[in-house]
Design brief:
2 domains, alpha/beta, Rossmann fold
Length: 344
């Protein structure tokens, strides 16, 4: 069989086809290179600092951290792959300052601050590292943000409660113990948030027919002496405001209430799991889940100044029936029906 020579036109078209295939292949490789680079960029390890104002490895705080880690995984941030979390613990001011300095020295991409002392300490130490806070009652009054809608600086986050919540504590105390006529309110005179919560309770106290007595919480000895002295005349109850000092001294407060047989309302679930009577407040674990979304947005380039401070969306009522029985109290069925958790 004789092979016919290719015509000039066929040879030209063949060369054009091969050239076009080569350019397409080269273009495909070029297009693939930026995609691989982007993938590698997204997988680079980012660093999160966490500063918590509790004792080391506090079980309640561990539960919050677990919720944060789970929420971050759902957003694509996995420890050991593209994320590193450095956690520091501390209650006293000196340790919080040291831990804040340590975390900032690690050059994290963002720091999560639990509670007012860590949030304030971190912001005083840096104006460049982004901060996402949880458990802060009055970030505007404390100077952490300019306003809730427009934080304006390097910090934003989630407030722990609104001051009007304090009224609910008095309402629940009277529902649990109708005979109460005198109410001790544990707050610290040097803490503006505690004073604001006390003022909210004071505003409605006459309508509930109770007389208020503010008590300090500087140390365990003061708490024990003041609570015992208050309880002596009888017909008393107690409300514990949500501030760093009451959380730090929660064991002493619960012990004092038990020894003086005072029905007491607390601001957080952790008080009731430790033996307190009843608590009503924001679900802190839920706030950590929500904080993960803000951490994610900061890691992706958004600025805290542009992320509004958010109020709690989930509250929880927790009742300890064992403590109620020890105090000789019958928990009203209406209160039990509203409870999110009952400890027996």
């Amino acid at each position: 069989m004789t092979t016919q020579p290719l015509s000039p036109l066929t040879m030209l078209l063949s060369r054009h086809t091969r050239r076009r295939e080569f350019i397409t292949l080269l273009g495909g490789a070029a297009a693939a290179w930026p995609f691989d680079a982007r993938t590698q960029q997204s997988d680079r390890v980012r660093r999160i600092g966490v500063l918590i104002n509790t004792v080391d490895n506090d079980p309640d705080a561990i539960a919050r951290l677990s919720a944060l880690q789970k929420a971050l995984r759902e957003l694509g941030w996995d420890e050991g792959r593209n994320l590193q979390i450095d956690t520091r613990w501390g209650v006293d001011d000196d340790r919080i300052r040291r831990n804040a300095a340590e975390l900032i020295a690690l050059a994290p991409d963002v720091i999560l601050a639990n509670g007012p002392p860590p949030a304030m300490t971190l912001q005083q130490a840096t104006r460049s590292v982004p901060i996402v806070f949880v458990g802060v009652t009055d970030p505007v009054g404390m100077g952490i943000v300019q306003s809730l809608a427009r934080p304006g600086g390097n910090a934003t986050g989630f407030i722990s409660a609104e001051f009007g919540l304090s009224v609910k504590w008095l309402e629940m105390l009277k529902e649990m113990a109708p005979g109460v006529r005198r109410v001790a309110v544990l707050r610290e005179s040097s803490n503006p948030s505690g004073l604001a919560q006390f003022a909210a309770i004071q505003g409605v106290a006459p309508s509930f027919g109770v007389e208020l007595s503010p008590l300090g919480v500087r140390d365990a000895g003061e708490i024990e002496r003041d609570v015992e002295a208050f309880a002596r005349p009888g017909n008393g109850g107690m409300i514990v405001t949500r501030i760093a000092e009451t959380i730090a001294h929660r064991d002493a407060i619960i012990k004092a209430a038990s020894q003086s047989r005072l029905p007491a309302v607390y601001p957080l679930r952790v008080f009731v799991t430790a033996g307190g009577l009843i608590s009503y407040g924001a679900d802190v674990v839920d706030q950590y889940r929500r904080a993960a979304a803000y951490v994610d947005r900061v890691l992706k380039g958004e600025k805290p100044a542009d992320l509004p401070v958010q109020a709690p969306t989930k509250y929880e009522l927790v009742i300890n029936l064992k403590t109620a029985k020890a105090l000789g109290l019958e928990v009203p069925p209406t209160l039990l029906a509203r409870a999110d958790e009952v400890i027996e």
